[in-house]
Amino acid sequence: MRWRLARFRRSVAEWLDRAGSLARAGTVRQKVCPACRALVDARDSRCPFCDERLSALDRVGIKRLLGGLLPEGPRYTLALLFVNFVLFGLALLSASRSGVGLEPIFGHMPARTLVDLGGRDYHVWDGQWWRLVTAVFLHANLIHLLFNSLVLFDLGPSVEEMYGTSRFLVLYVLAGVAGSLASSLVHPFSITVGCSGALFGLIGVMIAYGYRHRTGLGEQVRSMYLRWAVYGLFLGFVIPGVDNAAHVGGLLGGLIFGALVSDTPSFTRRGIFGWRLAGHLAVALVTICFLLVGLHYGR
Fold first, then answer.
1. 183 with 134: CB under 8 angstroms?
2. I want to staple 168 with a disulfide (CB 3.0 to 4.6 A). Which of 160, 219, 266, 286 is the partner?
């Protein structure tokens, strides 16, 4: 009993020590810019280096406090997850109006619904290029969505923190397009949806990071994400219906991006402005593509 009581006291003391450390970390008032990762004054509402808007949630203390209580989830990763779930809800609503019911939750979304909402099919070769982008944000069923969301939630924060929000978003869109384009070349008459090509792009850029940095950390990152790539491609070959062409295309896109783009934050105004502009252009491209889907809906 004395041993158990002593163990309980040690557990309580350790818990109080961790809680105290977390509380002390929460008192740090400086802010970290989510775009260029610069450390700025707590009173700044905009980053003096890149003019990114700052909020109270960008305070170092709050980030540490939330990081100790909740899983880390940078803004664009959460935004992409939100968009994917919203579009899946719209697809379910569209399918239910056609009389399919809730079967697409665990079965398969009707082909017509996917095509109407921007799924990638042979229309790409008829001039509807925007399907290369919109297909990245659609999913065939709930299992497909949840699996990709888990991978994005696990992988996205690491890439976004390492490369910054703007580069992360540009990489995600470019890798997704590369996957869609590879799928179009290999399976021109199939209907393809899903963000797995973009996810393999994130894996590819982390592999490139490992080769770029010849350090112990770089070797660990390279080894881990090489295994991710091998396992993912292997599952793509053994599971029927998986589009491995999109996986390979996205992986190559991520490798090329990682070889050409450094993870080092930009310190010049020109570099910071350039990546901010590229991020805004990526958002504009996705928005324009879905507007074009709306103009061609039901045709």
1. no
2. 160
